[in-house]
Amino acid sequence: MPQPRVFERWFNALPTIDPETLHKEDQNCVICLLSYSSPSPASLQQNENPASENPIRLPCGHVIGQECLRKWLSPAPAGGNSNKCPLCRHHLFDAWPSNLAISADELMQRLPRYRHIPDPATHEADHAAPAVDPRDLELYRAFATQFVRYNDRGRTDRAVPPDLLERVQERLRQQRQRNGETAHGFSRLRETEERTRAVPPHDPEGIQERSRRQRQRNEELAQRLVLIRNEHRLLEIRERRRAIAREQAELERQHAELEDQNRALRGRLGHHDEPRRDTAGSGQIDLGLSGLRERLNEVDYERWRHRNLGQRHHRGR
Description:
It contains ten helices and two strands, in the order ααββαααααααα. It is an all-alpha fold and 317 residues long. It folds into three domains: 4-96, Zinc/RING finger domain, C3HC4 (zinc finger) (Herpes Virus-1), CATH 3.30.40; 104-195; 205-316. Helix 4 crosses helix 6 (134-152), helix 6 (134-152) runs antiparallel to helix 7 and helix 9 (204-269) runs antiparallel to helix 10 (273-316). 13% of the residues are buried.
């Protein structure tokens, strides 16, 4: 990863996005989950005038809040010491080195400047700790680590305390505690990183293709729904037609019985008025049969109309 000044130039060159141009589901920072019109958590923690969280677009295409992104990418201990996008894990720049690679002679020239670091158990260390920059302590630890490795190869320097590495590590721990750096501070960032580890990069063509297929499926479902409704109505019409046919058969049976009774009465009585009365009853039955025939014709028309409607939908598919 570049040095801090180079990192600042790179970070400040990232494009700022107008929140109004983002989709509704993208108008919240993926790290702090606040909308881009809300004050950033960093400005609230530093007791500054609350500033809105500006959305920044990374080279991979993802948009993240400016302050949360700075906290995520900044080197330890002030930041998350990451060089990847929190969403797609795309590498943005070279990683921050954990140790400084310098020559042994250069190391021996620099170490005397850091020999004055006091023992953490002394009163002097308590007063001196706040004045030590955490990044300097990282350098001290790297120097001391390389000094130990250097001495392991056979060279010694009695001017450097043998427990320098332990002192630096303890001082670094104390400094981080004073700065409020805990594992909980970045737990939400790490959880977001784990949840979004498998999220693919921005793929507009894939999104368009999925949208097209979804619209096609919706149209097919709508056509199937229309056909199901038509089939349901046809079933109702068939059931009504069967019921009317049963009524017609019953009326025809009654009509036949009345005709038989009429003929029997004519043969036995020989009167003129009685057949007329029986004929009037038969006329009422004939009228009922005519009404049934009209209802059957209406049902046949409805059935024909729905059959044609279903054929049109099948041809449309």
